[in-house]
Amino acid sequence: MINGLDLSKLNLNDIMGQMKDIANKTKEEDSNKKFTSQVGGGLIKLTLNGNCEVTDLKIDDTLLSDKNMLQILLISSMNDVLKQVEENHKTSSINFMKNFNPLEQEK
Predict the structure, then answer these.
(1) pLDDT at res. 107
(2) Per residue in 38-74, is it b (16+ CB within 10 Å) or e — as a string?
(3) What is the pLDDT of residue 34?
(4) Pairwise CA distance, residues 22 & 27, whole Å
(5) At 13, which helix (H) or strand (E)?
(6) Terminal alpha carbon distance of the chain
(7) Where are the domains of the chain?
(8) DSSP class of residue 5?
(9) Residue 8: which residues within 8 A CB-CB, separation 6 or more?
(10) pLDDT at 82
(11) What is the mean pLDDT of the segment spanning 51-70?
(12) What is the pTM of this model?
């Protein structure tokens, strides 16, 4: 017993099941979120969902003749949108940890 809590009553399988359910729900919610980066004044527009899957890519025709500029702008756009998705994952993880309390059932 720790601080009045009987830890022997904790069912780790239930706790792991709850965590798995929450993770699956979060993944599903993330798949519906959209993160977009526009670079080069809108010459490139890249959209990812919250699971880091590319859902849309628009490249202005004027870039097709300038391979170096196209590469630079694509890299910039990818880095930008990946940072957005990473921030979303951090926020989701922090919120999960704030709200998850396996001992709550014991009170």
Answers:
(1) 43
(2) bbbeebbbbbbbbeeeeeeeebeeebeeeeeebeebb
(3) 96
(4) 9
(5) helix 12-32
(6) 13
(7) 34-98
(8) B
(9) none
(10) 96
(11) 96
(12) 0.72
